[in-house]
Amino acid sequence: MTIQWFPGHMTKARRQIEDKLKLIDVVIELLDARVPLSSRNPMVDEILKGKPRLVLLNKTDLADPQVTAQWVKYFAEQGLPALPIDAATGTATKEILPRVKQLWADKIERQLSKGINPRAVRALIVGIPNVGKSTLINQLAGKKIAATGDKPGVTKGQQWIKVGTEMDLLDTPGILWPKFEDQLVGQRLAATGAIKEELLHLDEIALFVVRYMVEHYGAALQERFGVTDLPEDMENVHEVVKVMEAIGRKRGAIVSGGKVDLDKASLIIIRDLRAGKMGRISLEKPQ
Ligand SMILES: Nc1nc2c(ncn2[C@@H]2O[C@H](COP(=O)(O)OP(=O)(O)OP(=O)(O)O)[C@@H](O)[C@H]2O)c(=O)[nH]1
Ligand SMILES: [Mg+2]
């Protein structure tokens, strides 16, 4: 399956960001800690041309802590210090303002030396749909100002939000790129919830998830669903489907005649993964 994705408001979002760029001091690039590189929009570098940047790895509560540590190291080696956070509960989000100010320190310094009271630093939050941009803004603002939701495409327009007196944040709709060159990237983003479900074949995404789980988190899969006899040969689709069927049977996803309802089983697998019910799972590792 090739996931194609052409929603008009994504193109519009890109244009709107380009229009606002001259007002922006610092860019906060929000990535999904479970799939950091796959959730990195290749357009961002091109659009944001050399603006000071802070990389945040969000949803670390759902990601494998060991893998997140590897990613932090990976980004540091690229000269991009990345801060792991959990925007929903606010873990480490207090470190964001000092880091943003640090990126803007020279400018603040210059204003002070001219006797000007430094204005609030203006930060733009960019990230793919559903990565947690609006949640982060609410967390930083200490109140619910931006609409959030457990599906991609919640934020439709741009909105400036004040964080105390020192920072103004611009919330934007998530931007996805029009076509995934790498099928694996599309599958990871589908599994973690960046792509509208109506556009997906859920069984293919669940197949990808189960295959990855057997290969990397077999024990967690067994514990969650009580499935035994995990296949050795994960390249064999039939073997993977058998695991999906076993999960469906355990969870009562049965149609009349006793056959497993594979669509329902797929939904259960995907929902459980996204809710962290299988434990803390990362779907991408450095290299
Ligand atoms: N577990 C977990 N969930 C999070 C975290 N941050 C955000 N979420 C959830 O992710 C979902 C999407 O959050 P939003 O803030 O609406 O995402 P967004 O990036 O603004 O999405 P769009 O506006 O659609 O582009 C919501 O259900 C949030 O509660 C996090 O750190 N951990
Ligand atoms: Mg939003």
TrEMBL record:
> Out of the domains of life, which is the source?
Bacteria
| Signal peptide extent | none
Q: Where in the cell is it found?
A: Cytoplasm
UniProt keyword annotations, A-Z: Cytoplasm, GTP-binding, Nucleotide-binding
Span of domain CP-type G: 14-178
Q: Which CDD domains match?
A: YlqF
Q: Which Pfam families match?
A: MMR_HSR1
Query: Does the keyword Aminoacyl-tRNA synthetase feature in the UniProt annotation?
Result: no
Biological function: Required for a late step of 50S ribosomal subunit assembly. Has GTPase activity.
For this protein, the record's NCBIfam families field holds: GTPase_YlqF (TIGR03596)
Similarity comment: family membership: Belongs to the TRAFAC class YlqF/YawG GTPase family. MTG1 subfamily.
Protein name per its UniProtKB record = Ribosome biogenesis GTPase A
